[in-house]
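Quick one:
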Amino acid sequence: MRWEQKFLFPSYISLINFKISREKGEIKIEVKNKNMKIVLFILSIIFIINTTVLAGDVFILEIIHDKNEEIIEKFELKPGDIFELEHTHSAQNAYVNESFSLTKDGKFMLFEMKFTSQGLGLPDAVGGKFKLKDGKFYWTDINRIIPKLNIRVGNISRIKFKFNNKIYSLIDYVDDTDLVIIKARRK
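Output:
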């Protein structure tokens, strides 16, 4: 099956005179003017730059075992994507959930915490908004920028990384008291 479309414009626009045809599942573009080939080449370069550079950065978030620098897990994120860390506070034995978003320069912004108890090592209402709802404390509008996260994994804390409706228990990847580093790099 042959499909062909010709674009013919008035002769005073001699740059735009080309034909697109589709044969055997292939699309062929035939340009009849050398100047038009240059214009199409430049437009192609602009399109590539726009889709790779200007369309938004993509980052790789890596969870790294500090002991041997092995990448435990990695995820593709864009600025504004959200992930959570959930754990049991070691001193208070209380549930804690921290929500982070990725900034446009690849850092993490802690913007919300939820926890079930107050006390030693748990936050108070310093900056942001603080409220009690349904038996949980909510600390919102924190907006603290953190370049990377260094996390000591333990059997008591049972730290979980949550992203895209999936939960990754970090103790399943490393030994008790090992350090993991969470950081982002440009793709």
